[in-house]
Amino acid sequence: MAEYASSCPDSRSAEGKDIIMAPTQSPVQGGDLLDNIDSPDDLRGFNLRELEQLAGEIREEIISTVAENGGHLAPCLGVVELTLALHYVFDTPKDKLVWDVGHQCYAHKLITGRREKFHTLRQYQGISGFPKRSESEYDVVESGHSSTSISYSLGIAAAKELQLDDSKVIAIIGDGSMTAGMAFEALNHAGDVHKDLIVILNDNEMSISPNVGAMSSFLSRKLNSKTMRNLKDHVEEGLKSMSSVGENILNLLRKSEESLKAFFTPGMLFEALKFKYIGPIPGHNLESLIATLRNVRDNTHGPVLIHVLTTKGKGYLPAEMNPGEYHGLGPFTIATGKPLPSSGPISYTAVFGQTICSLAEQDKRVCGITAAMPAGTGLSEFSQRFPDRFFDVGIAEQHAVTFAAGLALDGLRPVLAVYSSFMQRSLDQLIHDVCLPDLPVTFALDRAGVVGDDGPTHHGVFDISFLRFVPNLTVMAPKDENELQHMLCTAVNSDGPSAIRYPRGGGEDVALDQEFKALPIGQGELLREGRDLLLLPVGNRVYPALEAAEGLARLGIDAAVVNPRFIKPLDNELISDWARTCGRVLTVEDNVKKGGFGSAVLQMLHELHLLVPVRILGYGNKFIDQAPQQILWKNAGIDVAGIIKGALEVMKQ
Q1: One of 425, 447, 468, 584 is an active-site residue; which one?
Q2: Alpha carbon of 644 to those of 124, 357, 456, 542, 650: distances in Å?
Q3: Looking at CB atoms within 10 Å, which of 389, 435, 513, 565 has the fewest?
Q4: What pLDDT digit, counting tens, does each position of 21-30 carry?
């Protein structure tokens, strides 16, 4: 293995301006290094200059691919050197790297055998944007949700110890992920059981949006060396003026110098949790990273935390200047950083953001809550217009739900905007802390249904199933963006808990009412009369069902269409009357079939002793890979053609 002699230069030009897209030194002669990397073994013989060139090539590949496909740009650019250093020092895949969150993994994928497939990143039947066990032995877990790495890694370390395996386990966790309670539960346990565990804290002061909370402030508090020297010199001068007593105290303080430093730095917290704390160290200096990782690998035992300082978006100026905007984005122009022009109707997320602002103007009890995603959930404008009523709790969905319950207990009307897949993390709080006391908390579940390129960790296809069984909870799904407005008004003015699920992407391009109205709870609407078949589509499947009904009419089948609006409670009277009239029922949902909307309809009809053929269209009992939404809807048979096909099949019964 090559020895290191030179230091890593700072990645700034002579004029002090950031280099947008270039290696940290001039390229080594002999062509592109990345083209010859098929596994980490191929880079372990590199010298420092070659590793620096490789880092530049990796950044270029990440930028060009994300510009074409979309993806997570800024977090991946920030960990290129760290990724190289980890694979250089540790014997992967025998030594395990656990990424947290997994969207930091693009450089990792490029050097672990997926370089030639990297252009398929986040594409249909391509490689995932997150670690995926089925893709590579280097991917330990599918880490699409935050704050799990220390728990995973501690479990792996305990298993290794029991099996007399002395290989290493390294958790790489972002400082945003450290805002979640699960990370601290794992840190607390790790310090207690004292397993051989390495935790790398990737501190870029960002999760998705800028980090919030006392923990973030604590990690950002760094005592500069000049301040420390001045304090030390002042204390020494005073003690030396005192006889032998002062000298004895000075000797004691010299022995305690590291403890004094720890008091003024983040190390104090981790040392209290029985971790050996190392850092902060510069996260873009390969020489420093490699030396530190080697030292930890060879000379430490038990839990160790290495605090690494990185720049989110490193190497691409637009991402460095606006890391939140470049966290996850669609295709863009590299030269300008501007997103490619897109057309289409306003998104459900944007309509939610506009509506909650309008409701907050009318009702001072309305509050907005996010778990570190004000932009992604449409709450950015609300945060600016109503800062006193906006709460970003960090990546802490469980706390967010119970915090909302506390607001509701004292008379406010909180609205928690959260992705459907992230709501999964707080089911107990939903049941015990909100629905049991029957509190007026509104859950705005964005990204309900399949989300497209982010894949199985982010598809919101389980929420109908896990919300249906909770007492006191009203569950709604709008057919379009205008109905979303009225449902949010309904929820905020309800005296109990409500959830509204709505999809990712644009609406149906319908006109938006200027006045909001509260909908009667549990009342659907008849959109089309018919005598042969009842179509019961929910949420974003309503318009495809209406189009399918027109297609069925051309085939001589007269289909009625009911928009249920409410998944819970169902409009038993409307649905049962039209089921009786038509004699056959087809339900359609952007959710798994087990425990979903169709299951609710079946149960209701059974309880009413109404025995008619029912067919349920939705997703099967399996996790769904990444693909554009249209492909996933087609594959599940819940697009227009699939609904027609399902209708023809139920007509045979």
Answers
A1: 425
A2: 25, 40, 27, 13, 10
A3: 513
A4: 433 333 344 4
